[in-house]
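Data availability (excerpt). The following record was deposited with the supplementary files.
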Amino acid sequence: MTISRAIGDAMQKSSWIRKMFEEGLMLKREHGEDAVHDFSLGNPEIEPPEEFLKTLEECASDRSPGLHRYMPNAGYQWVREKIAAAKSRESGVKVPWENVIMTVGAGGALNVFFKAVCDPGDEVVILAPYFVEYLFYVTNHGGVVKVCETNEDFSINLGNLEKCIGPRTKAVMLNTPNNPTGVVYREEVLHEVAALLAKKEKEYKRDIYLISDEPYKRIIFDGEKHPQFLKIYHNAVVAHSHSKDLGLPGERIGTLVISPNCTHAHDIVGATTFAIRVLGFVNAPGLFQRAVADHQKTAIDPLIYRKKRDLICSIFDEAGIEYVKPKGAFYIFPKSPIPDDIAFVKILLKHLVLAVPGSGFGRAGYLRFAYCVSDSHIHAAAAGIKKSVKEAKR
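Predicted structure:
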């Protein structure tokens, strides 16, 4: 085999999202962009906020000497100071600027963390349904994924979680608001998770990290609040990206924050900074570091996505599709009308509607719709969704 077995296996596991994306491209060429209703990718169609774009223009036109030279691998100090101050206000935990590392998106943040802390065979617990790339981030650095099943409403099952934690557990990774379900984890449950991890640390005499992957933290509805992991647990690590809250998925700008209460915080900061070099990132994009520094509270209006959520929920209600109502992000993870989610996705395709089978997220019998598309596409997809349900139940 020309390519590595590990990459070959990873490509197979990630094939559903890629397959649906490619199917969408072919259908759009055949039927036209407007006729195909693509809910397969979480690629937001909303443009970045105007106030951010003005700052970006100012940064891009700045011709001060040295702006495009090498910088510290962890990023500009002044940018890290501003983000540390914002994170301190937000979390209620005093975060030193040294504990903020600028990264190439949240994916880059998670990769440098796993590179820094994982020894071969160390285990990382993730919750199902999960963002499929978590599997690759962990195994890419010698780690082993342990999958913990959630409850039927996608909430955390503490009993299942405890069974997944063992003597090789290095970390538990949570994502709230969640991709693919849109669920927001309740803070009281997270305190129970923290207590469980603290108990297991003592039992196994090793540090266990609680990783919060939170690119959707500013896209929350219905009065829900984003939990502050730095305040909830001492060995907390937070990965954030501006891909969704500022609408910048193509610019790859994010942060990794190491709790000052981590047992070996100084060592982790040094190791993750070194890992940025080892993995070839070198540093996060300089222009976008400067652009996001003063926009730690700026975000796309979440009410836009709440409206889209309500639109697609009304379509599912009319079609007789069961779902857990999302409280954040821009995904919904309904039950397939038939047990075979892959078969139903193929029926949807016939009606020019693209979704991703839940099998690709570790939960067969479900579907993921990314509703970060235009309202007109959501409305127009209604007929195809309803026809697909009727066809599937014949």
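Summary of structural features: The chain has 14 helices and twelve strands.
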